[in-house]
Amino acid sequence: MSRQHSLFSVLNDSMREAFIARCNRVSLDAGQSVFMQGMKHDYSYIIESGSVRTYYVSGTGREVTLSHWSKGDLVGGPLVFGGGKHVWSAVATRPSKVLAISGPDFQDFATLHPQVYAWIVNILGFKLRWLSVLFQIHGTEHVQERLIKLLIMLGENFGASDPRGVVIEQKINQQDLAALVGASRQWTNKTLNHLKKIGLVDMHEKKIILCDVKGLKALLRAG
């Protein structure tokens, strides 16, 4: 499963300018909401810079992080052409800029440029697979197994090759990892430190490095 591709990767320069002309450019401070669960779904958002976290809040008030998104990613959906209500929330995790496009404008642009429809199908498929894997992670029993599965998935979707291994480009801290695997921060930190001690992962400048992906997969199979 590869990460979602930027819309601009399927648009030439003139189409990109036409798309941006339909958007509102929004600047966000860290901690500022993009949209809230239950709000009317009027816009979809494409990140120009920064990082956005999406999360779901249950009826009991429990908050579950769904993912962190960065430059080029689509935030919103599944109702990308508007209508209904947002089924989760999104918040900027650091100063960010996003392009907000209304549902009707997005649909009209996609009608004029059919490759955008194909891109949307691929993006929604990516998001569905991502959520499916998260459900599988939460269904496992041990924190170590959950964390290893998540790290492998993050490496596959947001990883960049590096002499040290695979660097996860998203800046995800230990609290974020704990939220994603549905465990306490203490247990998550303990497991992460164990993986670091045996040489499978490392941390540098708030980024996670998978030093030995094969070793992580072997440990997962053995677990």
Concise description?
The protein has 223 residues and is of the alpha+beta class.
Question: Topology of this structure?
Answer:
Blueprint (H helix, E strand, L loop, with lengths): L12 H9 L2 E5 L4 E3 L7 E15 L5 E7 L4 E2 L13 E14 H10 L1 H25 L4 H16 E4 L2 E4 L5 H8 L3 H13 L3 E4 L2 E4 L2 H10 L1
Antiparallel strand pairs: 1-6, 2-6, 3-4, 3-5, 3-6, 7-8, 8-10, 9-10
What is the beta-strand fraction?
25-35%
Q: What helical percentage do the residues reach?
A: 40-55%
Radius of gyration: 18 Å
Per DSSP, the total helix count is 7
SSE pattern: HEEEEEEHHHEEHHEEH
Which regions have little confidence, pLDDT < 50, spanning 5+ residues?
none
Structural class designation: alpha+beta
Coarse morphology: globular
Number of domains as seen in the coordinates: 2
CATH superfamily of the largest domain: Jelly Rolls
Q: In CATH, what is the class of the largest domain? A: Mainly Beta
Corresponding CATH architecture of the largest domain: Sandwich
Overall pLDDT level: 87
Largest sheet entry: 6 strands, antiparallel
What is the CATH fold-level name of the largest domain? Jelly Rolls
Number of strands: 10
Terminus-to-terminus distance: 23 Å
